[in-house]
Amino acid sequence: MVKQGLVKKVALAALLSSVSIFCSQSQATIIGSFDTGVDVNISSNISENEFGTDIFEELVYIEGNASGNNSGSDYSDIILGANETGTMSAAADGQVEGVAGFVQSSWETEGYFYFENNTGSDITVNMTFDITWFANIFTSSIDEEAYATAGVFIEDSYGDSVFEDWIELDSLIEGPGAFSLSDSFAVNFSFDLADGDYEEYFLIVDSFGFAENLQQVPEPTGLLSAGLVLLFVMRKRKMTTLSD
């Protein structure tokens, strides 16, 4: 039911190296953090439609003095009536404390929205996606990195991208300090559906974050850190387009 491979992410590969340098910061001081989330409420005007979600990916990885969490829509498969709402969501957060740490977390939910006209006559379908999202990052110096992104991607049953957008913050671009983005808006679609016809929309909601203190990473790092960085950069530079 959920279309596999709805979105492919490609990115430039990069390698971040970690060095052991003496640091006098308190172990209790937060030196890098991220917080990101997205909620999508989906509704239509027709009397019966099928809505479902499935967890496509969830990950929390922590190394050293760090913590992180994620959450979002669990699997569901329900019938919605006219103006009833289905919800898709994803969120991730994490922080690094003291002189050494790494945290990466993500949650990605795939879903679909299925309409079938069995009324005996043509109908007009009005569909609304109410989107709310945010991203926050903080770093205390250029020796730390934080990244956060939230995205929504929608494709119709013909394989055409009808909506794709995301927000992102990166301390490599923004510099040290606290930065925030947030927004709420609606995306609307309207189409005619002949008797006996159907239409289906595929969706992804995605939250991803990364934070690391580059001043000192606990051993062993080496190949493990390099492998995690490659996982990170495959998601980090986002998006291409929705593909088949």
Please explain how this structure is put together.
- With 244 residues, this protein is mainly beta.
- The chain has one domain (38-220).
- Helix content is 8%, strand content 64%.
- Strands 2, 3, 4, 5, 6, 7, 8, 9 and 10 form a nine-stranded antiparallel β-sheet that branches. A two-stranded antiparallel ribbon has the order 1-11.
- The longest helix is centred in the C-terminal third of the chain and has 15 residues, at 222-236.
- The chain is elongated.
Helix percent reads under 10%
DSSP summary, beta strand count:
11
Task: From the alpha carbons, calculate the radius of gyration and give it in angstroms.
Answer: 21 Å
Continuous helix count: 2
Protein name: PEP-CTERM protein-sorting domain-containing protein
Keywords: Signal
Signal peptide: 1-28
Organism: Paraglaciecola arctica BSs20135
Helix-strand layout with pairing:
Elements: E1 7-9, E2 30-44, E3 49-72, E4 76-80, E5 86-116, E6 123-139, E7 144-156, E8 161-170, H1 171-174, E9 177-193, E10 198-213, H2 222-236, E11 239-242
